[in-house]
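Recall from the previous lesson that a structure prediction takes nothing but the amino acid sequence as input. Here we apply that procedure to 2-polyprenyl-3-methyl-5-hydroxy-6-metoxy-1, 4-benzoquinol methylase from Sphingomonas japonica. The sequence below is the only information supplied.
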Amino acid sequence: MAVDMDRLHQMVGKMLGDLGGAYSVPTARIGFRLGLFDALHAAGPATAAELAERADGLAERYVREWALAQAANGYVDYDPATERFSLNPEQAMIFAIPDSPVYLCGAFDLAAAMIEGEAKVEEGFRSGAGVAWGQSASCLFCAVGAFFRPGYVNNLVQQWLPALDGADARLKAGARVADVGCGVGFSTLLMAEAYPQSRFVGFDFHEPSIAQANSHAQAHGLIDRVRFEAVAAKEIAERDFDLVTVFDCLHDMGDPQGCAKHVGQMLNDDGLWMIVEPIAGAGPAENIASPVGRLYYNASTMICVPTSLAQEVGAALGAQAGEAAITAILREAGFSRVRRATEGPFNMVLEARH
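The prediction returns the following tokens.
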């Protein structure tokens, strides 16, 4: 088979870009943890020596090489005339402003967690077995929580809940809300802060996540209106909820169909279920052409599919299951009214009612 040299050169160029991004993961994480991005953002341009001093007296030689690496990445700017490094406003949104909608510290941690879990997932390829949530990497659940937090901070209360028919008014008046698969509790607490008349319960089968969630509730002074319980979705005994939410986890469940049926039993007669799932196209051809689809397929290979396969049933929907597949599950579970209420670059929000 003849080699097309132009295509080969294009492919090599793509691989150099991809590998450069992969190599940036450990250096970017060091910058987040040691406050180097924060120091550039807070006090402005700096030489390597000045930046090292700002960041609690770090070693200048390490900081210089790190800063040049970030300049090569395009993550910081570099002025060769003054030998100063800086963050422009767009870079700051990604690397130094935690409540920015595109703050990506958690994304770098998630990439590292996937590498940490590589050997366990590889064994799953051979055996067909799953890798239980929390077992593939030391703090995968922390990274996942941090990755999704900026999206929740900037969309949950401002756009997603108001897009649901009647949900905003009901929450303002006082509602009972269950957040199923709540993880470390970011979504639950954001809702609780926005709707002081309502009461919230977060449920998750992962006890370390629930421990963190309860600590967050204590720190935010919300324990009078929010509690967290370690329990699997299909084992939740409480009933008569006005609203049930599921954020970016239905596709991770071993038995999403069983969970959907159980949620139907948890809701009161006029109850509403909000399902937030990764954005996906109509099928693989559309998804693989998208940068977001690329991220989700890779994350799904390393996290979502192994997690589901480790549970009862093991449906393994994957992060790119898409609206049609999710809607079919909801309708089979007895939800006659299902619609896409809104969407964003990373998520779609479905509304389901009996």
